[in-house]
Specification:
alpha/beta; Rossmann fold; eight-stranded parallel sheet; 26% strand
């Protein structure tokens, strides 16, 4: 089984990248499994990946290079026994150190493992802000990569792209470089796939570091059950967009240059509505997808933001979601992600 570890900071485009990568490899006849690690107690991207026909497992409540090593080992063994993939793609949380994860997997003693070069994805449109917000962490992710992917090149001009690539080369001159937009999956993206066919040789130097502490990112996640009776898809998509816009405005009052990732997803019958915000410089985006059949209608959120206290983040997210649901007369209840118990918070009129 070949292991591919696709790292990168929050909002750099890891999920979009591995979706394109996974689909391509399935088309080529590979049996592909994916492990997604979210830093919060709630996973948001697993539904998207499973809906694409890929075998996806989510690990939550921490970082797989810090607190979830046993969970990852169990998940790896289970996938190998039940599914027998020949390719395993690991998408760690954006505040993980990919090379550290490789070392943990290598020590598990699983038979017939090989590793692709360790990947770090960089968002070309946010790189300078990332360096200003979390310089030690971003530098560590870049220096440990064997392949550096400059993503979202469609969002920047040529001068910015040259500047970003030059800075990356200064930090890690030994890495292989590729520039692409993961959403396009064009010839440049195919070159990235070709690079993954190689063998990774990088080894971790020094002691393990707590990547969550190094990143200085606050995170908060949760689930709400939704009374979906009478709700319209387009109205809910507009509501999610408004949630993200209001969250952005409130976070900017405390950190005008924040980066990170705020994700909101709403499963509504056969529809899955997903919203995403990655920085103060970017605009919220909402997309409509097919729901992969995850059971009851629910709203999930995951937020991880730089230079903000946990208390401030919780207050912002809760107040904005509650006010928007109540404004739309949507009945909702908070769901404990561990027990599944529902605490009713509001009712439809």
């Amino acid at each position: 089984m070949k292991v591919m570890i696709i790292g990168g900071f929050l909002g750099s485009g890891k999920t979009t990248t591995l979706l394109s990568l996974g689909r391509h490899m399935v088309e080529k006849g590979h049996r592909v499994a994916i492990i997604v690690n979210e830093v919060g107690e709630v996973g948001v991207d697993g539904e998207t990946l499973s809906g694409s026909g890929l075998i996806a497992k989510e690990l939550t409540s921490g970082c797989i290079c810090c607190t979830l090593r046993i969970s990852m080992e169990y998940t790896l063994q289970t996938l190998e026994e039940e599914y027998e993939p020949d390719v395993l793609i690991i998408e760690p949380t954006g505040i993980a150190l990919p090379l550290q994860i490789k070392e943990h997997v290598a020590r598990m003693g699983l038979p017939d493992l090989s590793f692709a070069p360790v990947v770090t994805i960089v968002d070309a449109s946010r790189f300078n802000i990332e360096l200003s917000q979390v310089p030690r962490f971003i530098t560590a992710q870049i220096e440990e990569a064997e392949i550096l992917c400059v993503n979202k090149i469609d969002l920047v001009d040529r001068e910015t792209l040259v500047s970003v690539t030059g800075s990356l080369m200064d930090l890690n001159p030994d890495a292989l470089f590729v520039e692409f937009s993961a959403r396009r999956a064009d010839a440049q993206f195919m070159r990235f796939i070709d690079l993954l066919a190689g063998e990774g040789t990088a080894r971790q130097e020094g002691e393990n570091r707590n990547s969550i502490e190094l990143s200085q990112v606050s995170s908060y996640s949760g689930i709400y059950s939704i009374d979906s009776q009478g709700l319209l898809r387009d109205d809910m998509a507009a509501m999610i967009l408004n949630i993200l816009e209001e969250v952005k405005e409130k976070i900017e009052l405390l950190n005008p240059l924040f980066i990170g990732h705020v994700k909101v997803s709403l499963s509504l019958g056969k529809d899955l509505i997903k919203g995403s915000l990655t920085s103060s410089q970017g605009q919220p985006m909402v997309e409509l997808l097919d729901n992969s059949g995850q059971g009851n209608d629910k709203l999930k959120f995951l937020s991880a933001v730089t230079q903000l206290t946990k208390a401030d983040l919780v207050q912002i997210i809760d107040s904005v979601i509650h006010s928007n649901l109540e404004r739309k007369n949507v009945g909702y209840g908070s769901t404990d992600p561990v027990t599944g118990l529902i605490n009713i918070k509001g009712t439809s009129n």
